[in-house]
Write a structure and sequence with these properties.
Distance between the termini: 38 Å
Helix content: 40-55%
Largest sheet: 6 strands, mixed
Radius of gyration: 17 Å
Oligomer: single chain
Strand content: 5-15%
Number of strands: 6
Order of helices and strands: HHHEHEHHEHHEHEHEH
Number of helices: 11
Strand order of the largest sheet: 1-6-5-4-2-3
Mean pLDDT: 95
CATH topology: Rossmann fold
Number of domains: 1
Shape: globular
CATH superfamily: Cobalamin biosynthesis CobH/CbiC, precorrin-8X methylmutase
Low-confidence stretches: none
Length: about 210
């Protein structure tokens, strides 16, 4: 390995050039209309498995961009996800990012009911007036709760990014979402994380800024 001299402002551009080159070297072909998003997930994780594990419902990216353009809000299941999403870009369209996980009343209610804070947080999100894009990167119980509300028709989610990471109920929870007609972007398997959820949101926001969506 040799030291590569890259100006700070060019690091991201150079990273994407490397990703593109390595995809070609690995003979990995990704859909052109999804390439910008898949490459950003790889950029965030340095994991080329995302080239094959990210799953999209029909017209998912177009639907998500339209929701953002119409003022949809984004709800995350971690403050890390909240911090990672570009709020200034979202604000251009009237949207905000929310995370209820650290709210004291959420913790109190979760303890009283014997459920996770993610469950209570999803219920809070369902009460928002505006349309919501759920960006779940940590808690499979959030996805399970969204599916339960969908099945009972108490609340019908309009878009779900389902990329929780881990071992307990993670794959099961993702499959629950992919079984529905809810528009989704899901990473199959155990991999994911709040950084991936934020990267997916930002990928769409940046592509909208370029005028490509």
């Amino acid at each position: 390995m040799e030291l590569e001299h890259v100006l700070p402002q060019d690091i991201e551009k150079r990273s994407f050039e490397i990703i593109t080159k390595e995809l070609e070297q690995k003979n990995i072909v990704i859909d052109e209309d999804k390439a910008f998003l898949i490459k950003r997930a790889i950029h965030t994780t340095a994991d080329f498995d995302y080239a094959s594990s990210l799953s999209f419902s029909e017209d998912a990216i177009t639907i998500m961009a339209k929701m953002i353009r119409n003022g949809a809000h984004i709800v995350t299941d971690t403050n890390m996800g909240l911090s990672g999403i570009n709020k200034n870009e979202l604000k251009k369209y009237g949207g905000e990012v929310h995370c209820f996980m650290a709210d004291e009343d959420v913790a109190i209610e979760a303890k009283r009911r014997g459920v996770t804070r993610a469950v209570v947080s999803m219920e809070r999100a369902a009460m928002l007036i505006d349309d919501v894009i759920f960006a779940i990167g940590n808690a499979p119980t959030a996805l399970i709760n969204l599916r339960e509300m969908y099945d009972s028709r108490k609340f019908i989610p309009k878009f779900i990014i389902g990329v929780p990471v881990g071992f307990v109920n993670v794959e099961y929870a993702k499959e629950l979402i992919m079984e529905t007609d809810i528009p989704y972007i899901v990473n199959c398997g155990r991999k994911g994380g709040s950084n991936v959820a934020a990267a997916i949101c930002n990928a769409v926001l940046y592509e909208m800024r370029k005028g490509n969506l």
